[in-house]
Amino acid sequence: xxxxxxxxxxxxxxxxxxxxxxxxxxxxxxxxxxxxxxxxxxxxxxxxxxxxxxxxxxxxxxxxxxxxxxxxxxxxxxxxxxxxxxxxxxxxxxxxxxxxxxxxxxxxxxxxxxxxxxxxxx
Length: 122
Known about the structure:
This protein is mainly β. The protein has one helix at residues 100-105, and strands at 2-6, 9-11, 17-24, 32-38, 44-50, 56-58, 66-71, 76-81, 90-97, 116-120. The protein has 1 helix and 10 strands. The strands form 2 sheets. The chain has a 6-stranded mixed β-sheet. The protein is globular and about 40 Å long.
């Protein structure tokens, strides 16, 4: 299982970013996908999940601002982040799971890599 996150960067408060996670090594379309984030000095925090059937789930702190989507033809899951706040600053990581519950608590199919860094600052 390989998961490669991209799309992070430096953005001003109120700005937008679109993260992507390219997956390989497993049958992407049959897995539920998830995004977590890790702020400096803190643990992994669940952000959003999307089921194999494209049902979307969000943490309360991103509802209405973030949107998760997937493109099974490209084996890629996306996280569109709008109205970004300084507290959204973190490294963002994706992973896959065979159950929806597992997208939040594990077990996950891949390892937690470096992710992609999002910094929200003026």
